[in-house]
Amino acid sequence: MDKNKTILIIDDDLHIRRILEIKIRNSGYDILTAKNGKQGLEIIQNQKPDAVISDLNMPRLDGKELCIMTNPLKKDHPFLTIIITGRINPNEQKWINEMQDTLFMEKPFSPSKIIEVLTRYFEKINS
């Protein structure tokens, strides 16, 4: 695994941010965190993480708006986006499918499943 990959975790729930941060850092990744979508957008634009894990429902800028705003950036710097939320409906799945390198995970989620997805993504782009 490439130990130099940086993962941005965006969630307004401190507990979820901390759990993901600890588990993913223990897997060898560098971690950045943001407590809302607006802060996350600034980090994406300035630090260009290799993957973003974002809650869907957040204050200041929700996960859907964040994806729509950052999708064009993926042309110059591709990165994986994982959207996590407690609810799935067909409309959400539709817009997620239209985004480049974006997938959906339902809460409650397993941090080990997220790490698996990250590992597969980085293996695919490095092969």
Protein architecture, described:
The protein has 127 residues and is α/β, with parallel strands linked by helices. The protein has a single domain, classed as Rossmann fold, CATH 3.40.50. It contains 5 helices and 5 strands, in the order βαβαβαβαβα. The protein has a 5-stranded parallel sheet, sandwiched between helices. Helix 2 packs parallel to helix 3.
How is the secondary structure organized here?
Blueprint: E1 6-10, H1 14-26, E2 30-34, H2 37-47, E3 51-55, H3 63-70, E4 80-85, H4 90-98, E5 102-106, H5 111-126
Helix pairs in contact: 1-5, 2-3
The CATH H-level superfamily is: Response regulator
Helical content, roughly?
40-55%
- Counting DSSP E segments of at least 2 residues, the number of strands comes to 5
CATH class: Alpha Beta
* N-to-C span: 12 Å
Structurally, how many domains make up the residues? 1
Overall mean pLDDT stands at 91
- Class computed from helices, strands and strand pairing: alpha/beta
How many helical elements? Answer: 5
Summarize the structure.
With 127 residues, the chain is an alpha/beta fold. The protein is 45% helix and 20% strand.
Task: Name the features.
127 residues; alpha/beta; Rossmann fold; five-stranded parallel β-sheet
